[in-house]
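stage 2 :: seqdesign
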């Protein structure tokens, strides 16, 4: 526990220091990485901890962003209320669409999430009188205290830290254990009395809330929202970040999102073919490290402990104890 607390304090100190050390460009990249961590968490809740492969997280990312934007520009609510409206909008949309999606399983569930995501995109794209169509909604400027790059970084850091703590408590709760039981063996989960349909719907809604929160933070970060936030590309980013970091590990979505965003920013500065380069790197990681980056770290720690046990089991003359 002491080692864990020291590690948490060290990570917190590093993240706080980055806001003072990084230049403007890399500080914006770090802020985007923080926001994308929430989107990756939303995917990991479904796939890594429940076994539901979703290709539709972009729908709730976009609905959250547009909920915030409409509350900000049409209703002229205070900034905190706009944030709340965006998150609640994403949660309600997740509840409505999740009721249909969780009735299916396997590849049928995955296909249904794609249908939901693309339907959401086309609703936003074609409802010109409300959403502005392909023009989107502009002028989403946050309050002066967080309007600067450094101020918004610390604001995003505070929100993401609180959300990650909620995610940590969730997956380590009895509900989280039930989700992993459903992931491992749905028939056995039913046998021991777990209502898998209700559990899957609840985690689907929670996943939508995390994705919506990411969209809510992304809207004032970019000062605008566009329909493409809800299309299959946003959903694909959530999948890539989750798999890249290791969707079933606690830190997997955080590591995957940070690696994806920083790699994107770094590679795109050298070549116009950066999607190909990143695609190849992701293919290599997925093919040779199916557990993601955190899976690689975990396997290394297991091997190190095995070597340590093996060496401690020998006497000074080399014979086994």
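stage 2 :: out
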């Amino acid at each position: 526990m002491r080692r864990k607390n020291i590690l948490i304090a060290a990570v917190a100190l590093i993240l706080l220091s980055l806001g003072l050390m990084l230049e403007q460009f890399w500080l914006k990249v770090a802020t985007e990485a923080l926001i994308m961590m929430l989107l990756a968490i939303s995917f990991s809740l479904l796939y890594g901890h429940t076994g539901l492969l979703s290709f539709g997280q972009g729908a709730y990312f976009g609905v959250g962003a547009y909920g915030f934007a409409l509350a900000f520009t049409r209703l002229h609510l205070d900034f905190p209320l706009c944030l709340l409206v965006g998150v609640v909008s994403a949660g309600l949309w997740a509840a409505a669409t999740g009721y249909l999606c969780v009735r299916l399983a396997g590849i049928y569930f995955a296909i249904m999430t794609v249908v939901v995501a693309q339907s959401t995109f086309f609703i936003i794209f074609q409802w010109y009188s409300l959403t502005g169509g392909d023009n989107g909604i502009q002028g989403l400027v946050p309050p002066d205290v967080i309007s600067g790059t450094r101020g918004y970084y610390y604001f995003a850091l505070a929100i993401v830290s609180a959300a990650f703590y909620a995610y940590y408590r969730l997956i380590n709760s009895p509900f989280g254990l039930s989700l992993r039981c459903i992931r491992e063996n749905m028939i056995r989960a039913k046998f021991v009395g777990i209502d898998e349909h209700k559990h899957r719907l609840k985690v689907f809604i929670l996943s939508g809330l995390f994705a919506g929160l990411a969209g809510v933070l992304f809207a004032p970060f970019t000062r605008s929202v566009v329909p493409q936030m809800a299309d299959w590309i946003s959903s694909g980013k959530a999948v890539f970040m989750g798999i890249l970091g290791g969707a079933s590990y606690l830190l997997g979505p955080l590591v995957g999102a940070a690696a994806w965003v920083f790699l994107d920013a770094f590679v795109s500065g050298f070549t116009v073919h950066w999607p190909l380069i990143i695609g190849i790197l992701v293919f290599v990681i997925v093919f040779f490290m199916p557990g993601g980056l955190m899976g690689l770290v975990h396997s290394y720690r297991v091997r190190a402990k095995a070597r340590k046990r093996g060496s401690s089991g020998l006497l000074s003359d080399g014979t086994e104890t």
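stage 3 :: structure notes
- The mean pLDDT is 88.
- Residues 13 and 311 are 36 Å apart (CA to CA).
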